[in-house]
Amino acid sequence: MDSMRNKWILTAFVWSAVVLITLYNASEIRRLKLAREEMETLRMDEQFWQQHSESTAGISAEGNRLFLDIESVDLGLLIIDNRIKKLSSDRRLPPVTLNRQPITASEGQVPVDISFTGSFADAFRWFQALNKEMPFFKAVNLKISIDPVFNKAITTGSFSLRYRITLGDGTQESSGGT
Amino acid sequence: METYSTGMNKKNKLIIIFYNHQLLMILYGGKEDSGKIIGMIPFSETSSTDDLSASIPAETKKLKEIILVLPDYVTGNSIYPFTSGKRSIAEPFIRRKLAESFPASPDMADLFNYSYFKTDRGPGSLYAFYLKEPLAFTLYNRLTEAGLRPDRITTPAYIWQDKIGKLSDAEPGGSFCLIHPLPAESYLYFYVNGNFLFSRSIILPESTEGKNEKLDALAFEISQSLYLFSQKVKSEISRFYLVPSANIDETGLSERIGKNIRRIGTEKEEGRDTDNKNPMPGPLAAFSRADIDSATIPAISHRIVVMEKFWHTVQLTGIITGIITLMLLCAETAYFSFWYSRNILPKAASMSKNISDNRRIVGHYTEMLDIVMNDRQRSDPAEILSGIALSLPENVTVRELMFNLESPSQVTIRGIVRADGPDQIKSTLSAMVESLARNLNPSRPPVMGDIGFDMDGSGGDPALQSYKFHIKVDMK
């Protein structure tokens, strides 16, 4: 009886091992399948990036132009003030008054008020130059009052500076949204 | 107690004969084809397992096949009318019948065998034979406990039944009697429908008057036994067999009982002169080891042994199939592991850096793309100013421009239109609206209905009437 019982135990053990290894192999097959699929996806990703590296680099470069990399917000405002005044003087445009708005800046953006007085053409050229040289400094609201008799245009507006804080070694800490 | 040196191997078989309160152990098969006595051990109902176990040569416990030969009197038999010989029905039936008939011997239900037979006269019957004497159960249990569990248990009567059934002139299913004379005693075996019914052992008188007195005594006992046979089964013996013996005159015996007697040849008789070392005692003297080892001899096996033999093939097949399957699955596992380490791991290692780089690039690219697309959709104040300047007719002067450049962006133009009448106002402003729609790229082209007028603010040149107006243009 012991012999028969031992044989049954052996049979049960062998077939239990068969079932366990079958389950293990099934999980291995799933794992290998997933690994292959992931590798295929990565290979296609790599292929995609290789084929579109030029356009992605262009987008990245264009996107980077929309940020001013600064070490602090105050320093950034100083830079903006300096650049705007330089922009106006280089083009013989009227002087610009720049004020930081007394509201809390959202992450990555600082609201700034700007006003200047000049001709309508001056305003046009100023905005044209601003868009070309400082794409990270965007108008949000503008009001241009025009006196046709004296050919004078008073421009006041609210602007937004989009910036990225950079650490001393040039790495970025945070960036702003749209 | 006597034991002898062995030298056995696993191919050997062990024949254990219980005779005269002794266990005679004969090694047979393999190199011991002629049989070799390896032990003579006294046995009684009071013998303990320990004594028996100590007396048995240790190597015999490794033997797979053990045949136990018991005297006829320790077995019994019964005939039950039954319609089926199917194992699944017949076995439980016989177990139940034995348990009912012999409630004092519970082991009997595990130590029986049966055969199914049909006669011309009636329906089928089950012939059940079993151990019935307590001594037999004790012996079986002691041997099992000592490590010599018998595979088959038989008796001289069943060995004769098998031998007679193999004779060329045997009539299957008949009733017959076998007479086996020995020098000091004779054995009578009676069979009905080919199955053993009972046997008798007769001590023949030692006489100086020759063989006649022995013949008379033997004939008398045969007559008595025939009467007993007819009483038991209501039938007559149709054939008589005699094992040839120098002590018995076959013709004289035939005349005394009034029946024809056939001689039955045995290997022992034929080889009598050449084999003087016959170890078989008493009623087994006429048998060779091969006679006792025959697989066709009716034999009793314990139910556990029967079940083991029944399931042996299934278990063996299950284990072998399982092990083969297990090996294949292990090979599969090894192949997966090899394939993974050869094809996946190296590539994964080389790609792991690219994976993180790609993910970072994808994240950066997606972020930049959103920002760039939003910026591209944003209206440029310079372009709006240019569009408005291009759209203004000569008699329209702009006084104020208001831009909301957050989405949805909107441009509000306030100005003055000078005209000498409503028709000119209408045509002037209509031209302005069309130009604005063309130059500003609005989300919805402005229409005349979008223009509002401030009546109280009119004034200026009396020759020309001036009207203040305002218009809102929704930008993309």
Task: Describe the model.
The complex is a heterodimer of chains A (178) and B (476). Chain A has 178 residues and is α+β, with helices and mostly antiparallel strands. Chain A has two domains: 2-51; 67-175, Alpha-Beta Plaits (2-Layer Sandwich), CATH 3.30.70.60. Helix content of chain A is 53%, strand content 27%. Chain A contains four helices and six strands, in the order ααβαββαβββ. In chain A, strands 1, 2, 3, 4, 5 and 6 form a six-stranded mixed sheet that branches. The longest helix of chain A has 50 residues, at 2-51. The mean pLDDT of chain A is 84. Chain B is α+β, with helices and mostly antiparallel strands and 476 residues long. Chain B has four domains: 1-154, Nucleotidyltransferase, domain 5, CATH 3.30.420; 169-294, Nucleotidyltransferase, domain 5 (2-Layer Sandwich); 307-377; 381-474, Alpha-Beta Plaits, CATH 3.30.70. Chain B is built from eleven helices and 19 strands. Chain B has helices at residues 49-55, 87-101, 134-145, 156-165, 211-233, 250-257, 267-270, 289-293, 303-377, 381-391, 422-439, and strands at residues 2-3, 13-19, 22-29, 32-42, 65-69, 75-81, 111-117, 125-131, 152-154, 176-181, 185-192, 195-203, 239-242, 261-263, 301-302, 396-404, 410-419, 451-454, 465-474. Chain B has a six-stranded mixed sheet. In chain B, strands 12-11-10-13-14 form a five-stranded mixed sheet, sandwiched between helices. A four-stranded antiparallel sheet of chain B has the order 6-8-7-15. In chain B, a hairpin with a 7-residue loop joins strand 7 (111-117) and strand 8. In chain B, helix 5 (211-233) crosses helix 6 (250-257) and helix 10 runs antiparallel to helix 11. The longest helix of chain B has 75 residues, at 303-377. Chain B is rod-shaped. The chains are: A alpha+beta (178), B alpha+beta (476). Chains A and B meet through helix 1, helix 2, helix 4 and strand 4 of A and helix 9, helix 10 and strand 16 of B. Strand 4 (137-147) of chain A pairs antiparallel with strand 16 (396-404) of chain B.
